[in-house]
Amino acid sequence: MYTIGIDLGGTNIAVGLVDENYNIVKKISTPTLASRGPEEITKDMAALSKRVCAECGVDLVRDGIKVGIASPGTVNPKTGLIEYANNIKMRDFPVVKVFCENSGVAQENVAIGNDANLAALGEATKGAAKDAEIAVMITLGTGVGGGVVIDGKVLTGCAFGGAELGHMVIEYGGRACSCGRKGCFEAYSSATALVALTREKFAQTNSPIMAEMCEGDINKIGGKTAFAAMRKGDAAGAEVVDYYIKHLACGVANLVNIFQPDVLLIGGGVCNEGDPLLLPLKAEVAKEVYSADDKLKTDIRIATLGNDAGIIGAAALVNTAK
User: Which of 138, 126, 127, 122 has its CA nearest to residue 270?
Assistant: First the structure.
């Protein structure tokens, strides 16, 4: 039996037809064009769902295909409302109801959840945390997304806004965060933070290696610059990477101490640095974690599903929802 997984993003809407083993059989996407408003966006979600089924020789309604939706923001799975999503400009929008009206799918066959949570569920279902009893995932992108999966279920909290792991404070009174607090994990460990740290260091040092890499334009410094400069022997780049990894390790150690997961996954563009990120991170975390048994340790891994995690997680959600 097939399932539809929808990953609703600020840039693109991606829809996948997923088989019973959580392999994506077919995937299609379209630009979100968020300024259009929620009605038109939801109509596109319904149209793409019909289309991906038709292209695979199945009928969305007649064949009783269930649909899972991964959405940014605060999502209420009981009411089917996107209560607030800044980047797609939705507030208390009945996305499940409107989707069903435009697709013909019965509301009991649709489930919705937060995209970061469902990315974690996707990794726990088919990816790098498969078969873990407790899995925690952080995504290092524009912000720091988070998800916690316990025994195959997403931890959402009493108001469905739980697992905002990027907004725990790791330095009281520290760097300003977009959420309004200071010192958040996100303010030190997101890709955005890494870019800001690199630009600050370049402004202080005028590193010749960084200057060559960005052609003297500080605005061309990106998330890869510090690591690339470090690999070329640049002291300023190495300082940025060291500072970044130590703060990342602080947040990761906190999560290990709170949840003691079997697996903690790191996703997002920064994780593409591989061992230069992962090996020193593991070493720093090992200094920080509290454990009564050194033989049982959280395995810190790189996530493997990439942009497919949300689709697979959405499909897993609707298949396990009661």
Answer: 138
